[in-house]
Amino acid sequence: MAVNEEKKAKKQSDLSVLLGYTGSYRKLTYLGLFLSAIAMILGMAPYICIWLAARDLIAVAPDWTAASGISRYGVMAFVFAVSGIVVYFAALMCTHLAAFRTAGNIRKQGMEHLMKTPLGFFDSNASGLLRNRLDGAAAETETLLAHNLADIVGTITMFVSMLVLMFVFDWRMGAACLLAALISVISLYSMMGGKNASLMAEYQAAQDVMSKAGTEYVRGIPVVKVFQQTVYSFKAFRQAIEDYSTKAERYTDGVCRTPQAVNLTFTEAAFVFLVPAALLLAPGALAGGNLTVFITNFAFYAVFSAVVSTALAKIMFSASGMMLASTALGRINLVMSAPTLEVTANPKKPKDNSVTFRDVSFTYDGAELPALDHVSFKVKPGETVALVGPSGGGKTTAASLIPRFWDVTSGSVEVGGVDVRQTDPHVLMDQVAFVFQNNHLFKASILDNVRAARPDASREEVAAALSAAQCDDILAKLPDGMDTVLGSKGTYLSGGEQQRVALARAILKDAPIVVLDEATAFADPENEALIQKAFAVLTRGRTVIMIAHRLSTVVGADQIIVLDAGHVVESGTHEALVNGNGLYARMWADYNRAVQWRIASEGEAE
Ligand SMILES: Nc1ncnc2c1ncn2[C@@H]1O[C@H](COP(=O)(O)OP(=O)(O)OP(=O)(O)O)[C@@H](O)[C@H]1O
Ligand SMILES: [Mg+2]
């Protein structure tokens, strides 16, 4: 019971949430719904005309020629039918217009909201996926607003007016007509409530699992082929399919079969109780001498039982639209409830180009352990500080807190002596340049990719930045030079080349603080040397925080901070740490052994 009530409350709020998105088109929506109600009444009028004609015929029977008004009813029926269609068309025009605008509003509001969410949010929720989700869900609400809602209102109008009409002439026959409708509605609801609802949820969940397993399977095919694991990997997918078919069978066979059969039977055969009721009532009418009235009434209900069927079918159809829109709204809500960054009302200006971590802790949403645990360090203006440590130590996380990809859980990150949360986001973005671990190059020309850092930069400035980032050889081999669109005509850049383009972007940005998250993948020696050169240009005279996997690049850093499992375990210069006999000294020894081994094996190969 409680569950049912909860569901009802949710349904209502779904609709009001959706109407909330209509904005200035709310009145148009209501107009559309009102017209739809009028159209429905007009649509019922021809049935009444038919019945009036039947009544006249019955009154004069068997002298048919005496029924002179028949053709007038015919014309009226025609006029009503046509005007019903015209008004319905106008209603749909209104609701469609409102629906498109509403979907547009949802997309716009969703995108505006996403603009305010921390950038890190997109890392864990692929931005394309989010956009698709928003787009798809907005489109799904269109059907509800444009069609289903109008139909629901129309059907309710039809039901109410029918209810009135039903009881105007002979309530007993009216009740007989409604009994069939009642049975079919009850059987429909029995399919959805209580334990059956949980079975349906299980069925839908299994469907979800199956589609995910399918995607995983397809995505994993290359790996599977390489490792000859076809049978094993197919197992999970197969299991999901089997699970789905069991649950689907349980739901359709166990839950739906009987109610569905009952529902369909009584929807199609609304007259099934009318005929026995009429037969029972006929002797009384005959005795009372008002047989004509009785037959006329019977004709009325016989005609209207057909309308009952149509109305029921429409309700069923609209209910499924309601369900679809409800899940769509759920998905929209997921986007709209994404966390947003707080923007301060009175921003403070950073005083210099220092970066300070003050007792910073950070835990990712849903993670049990903090990725950073009471981390403190200071980078003075112009200094180069390296973050090193084992994989998963928290280096990338620490770097992403500086431009507020995420906000700290406790403690504070300061740029220029001001908490980043107290800084104007634009000022902060201008102050920090980022080179990510996985370079984010867009499917656009190299020019546009680099220019993303500073949209007002001239072509020459971009060219200079590319040149400073040692990209001349890349441009030389591309068909359209700087205007070559990446990913088109088979132009793909290697990892090392991508890094240099990303460095050009950071050079063009010309920000006083540079955060560099070095890619783990080894570039070839030639690329490596070019990257080092580009890096030297980028970092000259700036405050640098670099995350290095090749320890050779950090030897010259002013300070090295060793992060392990979210803790600062050591810090100091290379010399001090190597002599310290701690984690860094061990990493350094391992690194050298690896380099020796590489040189040795290369020597052997020659
Ligand atoms: N988006 C995320 N959501 C949840 N947990 C994350 C996320 N990104 C990283 N983590 C977790 O936070 C911890 C620190 O990860 P981080 O990426 O900062 O390590 P790292 O030192 O940069 O590692 P690597 O050297 O491999 O790049 C890890 O345990 C990781 O699993
Ligand atoms: Mg990392």
Can you summarize this structure?
This protein has helices at about 1-20, 25-60, 70-115, 120-125, 125-170, 170-190, 195-225, 230-270, 275-290, 290-335, 395-400, 425-430, 445-450, 460-470, 470-475, 495-510, 525-540, 575-580, 585-605, and strands at about 355-360, 370-380, 385-390, 410-415, 420, 430-435, 515, 545, 560-565, 565-570. The chain has about 600 residues and is of the alpha/beta class.
Give a written overview of the molecule.
This protein is α/β, with parallel strands linked by helices and 606 residues long. It has two domains: 324 residues, ABC transporter transmembrane region fold, CATH 1.20.1560.10; 251 residues, P-loop containing nucleotide triphosphate hydrolases (Rossmann fold, 3-Layer(aba) Sandwich), CATH 3.40.50. It is built from 19 helices and ten strands. A six-stranded mixed beta sheet has the order 6-7-8-3-9-10, sandwiched between helices. The protein has a four-stranded antiparallel beta sheet with strand order 2-1-4-5, covered by helices on one side. It is elongated, with a radius of gyration of 36 Å. The N and C termini lie far apart (80 Å). The N terminus is likely disordered.
List the helices and strands and how they pair.
Elements: H1 2-22, H2 26-60, H3 70-116, H4 120-124, H5 127-169, H6 171-190, H7 194-226, H8 230-268, H9 274-288, H10 291-336, E1 355-362, E2 372-379, E3 384-388, H11 395-401, E4 410-415, E5 418-419, H12 425-431, E6 432-435, H13 446-451, H14 459-468, H15 472-477, H16 495-509, E7 513-517, H17 525-539, E8 543-547, E9 559-564, E10 567-572, H18 574-578, H19 583-605
Parallel strand pairs: 3-8, 3-9, 6-7, 7-8
Antiparallel strand pairs: 1-2, 1-4, 4-5, 9-10
Helix pairs in contact: 1-3, 2-3, 2-5, 2-10, 3-5, 5-6, 5-10, 6-8, 6-10, 7-8, 9-10, 14-16, 16-17
The structure holds adenosine-5'-triphosphate and magnesium ion.
